[in-house]
Structure formats: structure tokens, C-alpha cells
Amino acid sequence: MAARKLAKLSEAEVTTALLALPAWTLHKGKLHREYTFADFVGAFGFMGSVALVAQEMGHHPEWFNVWNLVRVDLTTHDSGGITTADVKLAHAMEALAARQLGP
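Now predict its structure.
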């Protein structure tokens, strides 16, 4: 059975979602965030934790890592934009980062 395609969120829905994700922005039609950790091990540890959540969700981030920086962009390619899956993954990432970085 094929997975059901998620509906793309409206601009208003994305704006509302961003209110609950103050460190995230809208950049080139994607949810965008950069995390800075103490070092490479912290950044890579965060990415490993996110990978487990993303795999369980079946929704994977676009991301880039150099030393202590993790740059993330979230969009749902099959839906042509931001969906509830992107928002859910962003919240999960915030919770995982808070454990490492503090509030």
C-alpha cells in the first residue's frame, strides 16, 4: 500500500507553525534552521539522534554539516512544499537540540 501524500500547508499555516518554532525561518520555500554545537562530536551526535527520529517518521531532512554547524532545510518534495511532517520533524529537532544545547 502506497503512503498517502501529505497536503502542502498554506502560507498562513506555515506562518502559524513558525510562531511555535521561533528559531526557524522560511528560506526558499523551506523551513530553515542552523544549529551550532560545541564541536564536531556534538553536531554529529545531534545528527545521529535526528536520523533515528527521521527514519521512524519516514521523513528525512536536507542538511549540511561542517565541524560544529548543522544547517537544516525541511520540505516535503512529494507535496511540493512544507507539510505537517516538516513541522513535526522541526519540533523533534528542537527537543533533541535542547537536550544538548540547553534552552
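The chain has a mean pLDDT of 94.
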